[in-house]
Automatic annotation (TrEMBL):
Source lineage: Bacteria, Bacillati, Bacillota, Bacilli, Bacillales
Residues annotated as transmembrane: none
Species of origin: Pullulanibacillus pueri
Reaction catalyzed: a 3'-end 2',3'-cyclophospho-ribonucleotide-RNA + H2O = a 3'-end 2'-phospho-ribonucleotide-RNA + H(+)
Protein name from the UniProt record: RNA 2',3'-cyclic phosphodiesterase
Gene: ytlP
Enzyme Commission code(s) on record: 3.1.4.58
UniProt superkingdom: Bacteria
Motif range (HXTX 2): 130-133
Amino acid sequence: MNQPSHYFLAVPLPEEIKSFLFQCSQQLKKQASYKVWMGKHDFHITLVFLGGVAKEKLVALIDRLNNMTFQLEAMNLKLKGLGGFGKKDQPRVLFADVEQSDALAMNQKRVAQCCRECGFQVERRPYRPHITLGKKWAGEGPLFLERLAERIPPLEKSWSVKHIVLYEIHPGADPKYMPVQKFYCEP
């Protein structure tokens, strides 16, 4: 029996930011041991992870999101350094942190509510916007984020966002995340 494809909704990044983050991650690879490093075209800011989704449920969600896009606000976002999830000295995920934004927080809440109304289980932990660079810690010694941050250019770039994207996950492919549908924000 075929497993349903996995999907998530996210804020895409402009090419300039992807290129910058990829250059940084190439420098970080020399200093930090992660089993998985994100490819340049896979950088994004997840809003809601959906998991495996049957086609009928996906069509209903797309329809509902198309009808709610007037509620999504355009956003101005900014990187604000390195961060990690997990142990402080051996974070399982290394990420570029994203400065808190009222518009991003509101859009994430609206998208999550729309997903719940369509029957999806949505993460209950507080939303923490980030851009994953590496995951699955493979090192033996401690990792010090402060020292790593000193070895790359400052993560302080800004950009504007005018849409969000529904992505389908293709494990083993490059890029791994393929856009399915864009949903435009109101200016």
